[in-house]
From TrEMBL, chain B:
Keywords: ATP synthesis, Cell membrane, CF(0), Hydrogen ion transport, Hydrolase, Ion transport, Lipid-binding, Membrane, Transmembrane, Transmembrane helix, Transport. Belongs to the ATPase C chain family. It comes from the Bacteria. Pfam families: ATP-synt_C. It is found in: Cell membrane; Membrane. InterPro entries: ATP_synth_F0_csu (IPR000454), ATP_synth_F0_csu_sf (IPR038662), ATPase_proteolipid_c-like_dom (IPR002379), F/V-ATP_Csub_sf (IPR035921). Residues 12-74 form the V-ATPase proteolipid subunit C-like domain. GO terms for cellular component: plasma membrane; proton-transporting ATP synthase complex; proton-transporting two-sector ATPase complex, proton-transporting domain. The chain crosses the membrane at residues 12-33, 53-77. It is a multi-pass membrane protein. The record marks 61 as: Reversibly protonated during proton transport. It comes from Celeribacter baekdonensis B30. The gene is atpE. This is ATP synthase subunit c. One of its GO terms (molecular function) is proton-transporting ATP synthase activity, rotational mechanism.
Length: 251, 78
């Protein structure tokens, strides 16, 4: 991106995309598949934070919940209601998977907003795996549960017979595009937000506009907290929608 | 003035994909605006439709994301 620096004498030598670079934590900086990078570190912190909230926080199982337990219960209830409302009662069996997805994404997004941290969900490699897992899970589940009736998802029986083949092609394309849009929505939103904050931070080097820049960073940061939550919500709710399609493929 | 014409076209193309963002903005704005006007007419039904609102927003946004995908492909794959 901004590889050709604006010269060392310029005060605008900032690289908004540098924050997304995986850096090896140990050794000489070469990255293999097993290298511990900052991506690995922040994923581990994400998992630890989830365990801290959901396992340690609710360990007391108190009738009058403590602060941590209330937050954990709130999150649990929120996802549970979402699965029940969107995917239906019989999708509750798959609630643990959806809860895992939601808690991982929401924690990764919000931990990524800490200064000097790394947003793991800003990498398409991470969100792509999440989306492909959802896609293959839903497709396999659809065929296991419904057999060949799952293909009714593409054959819209309420449409006139003449346009059904055309609609089938469109439905097929939109089905296979799901993991693409599912993953890039999350990665793109996280990456764009963080890059915008960095660009405003670059403007802060100019004394005349630095107050505006700081205000803009503050405003963007507030928006990013909202976006971090909404994107996790959207990812989860779309998973629920896909799950509903797999369980009840009637169009 | 060095550099070739293909490079020029590539960067112009990447810039043009930003138009797709405008389209997505119109789409998402439409969804939110229509939701709000519906919600103000019948506030009691509004709470049950927030999930639909976000699903609609996500689908409208997906097409804007494809323009971002095209930009990425132009920048790094072509």
């Amino acid at each position: 991106m901004a590889t050709e620096a604006h010269g060392s004498e310029s005060s605008l030598a900032f690289h908004p995309m540098d924050q997304f670079k995986p850096v090896s934590l140990f050794g000489d900086g070469t990255i293999h598949w097993y290298t511990v990078t900052n991506v690995t570190l922040w994923m581990a912190i994400t998992v630890l934070a989830i365990v801290l909230l959901l396992v340690v926080g609710s360990r007391g199982r108190a009738m009058v919940p403590s602060k941590g337990q209330s937050i954990a219960e709130l999150m649990y209830g929120f996802v549970y209601k979402m699965v029940e409302d969107v995917a239906g009662k019989d999708a509750i069996r798959y609630f643990p998977y959806i809860m895992t997805l939601f808690s991982f994404i929401v924690f990764a997004n919000i931990l990524g907003l800490l200064p000097l941290s790394f947003t793991t969900t800003s990498h398409i490699a991470v969100t792509g795996v999440l989306a492909l897992l959802v896609f293959s899970f839903v497709t396999i589940l659809g065929f296991v549960k419904n057999g060949s009736k799952f293909l009714a998802l593409f054959w819209i029986s309420s449409a006139p017979l003449a346009v059904r083949p055309l609609l089938a092609v469109i439905e097929l394309i939109s089905y296979f595009v799901r993991p693409v849009s599912h993953s890039i929505r999350l990665a793109g939103n996280m990456m764009a937000g963080h890059a915008v904050i960095k660009v405003f931070a670059g403007f802060a080097a100019i004394a005349a506009i630095s107050p505006v820049s700081i205000l803009a960073i503050t405003a963007m940061y507030g928006l990013e907290i909202l976006v971090a939550f909404i994107q996790a919500y959207v990812f989860t709710i779309l998973t629920c929608v896909y799950l509903k399609d797999a369980l009840h493929p009637v169009h | 003035m060095e550099g070739n014409i293909a490079e020029l076209g590539k960067y112009i193309g990447v810039g043009l994909t930003a138009i797709g963002m405008g389209g997505a903005a119109i789409g998402v704005g439409n969804v939110a605006g229509n939701y709000l006007s519906g919600a103000l007419r019948n506030p009691s039904a509004a709470a049950s439709q927030t999930a639909t609102l976000f699903i609609g927003m996500a689908f409208a946004e997906a097409l804007g994301i494809f323009s971002f995908l095209v930009a990425l492909l132009l920048m790094f794959a072509v």
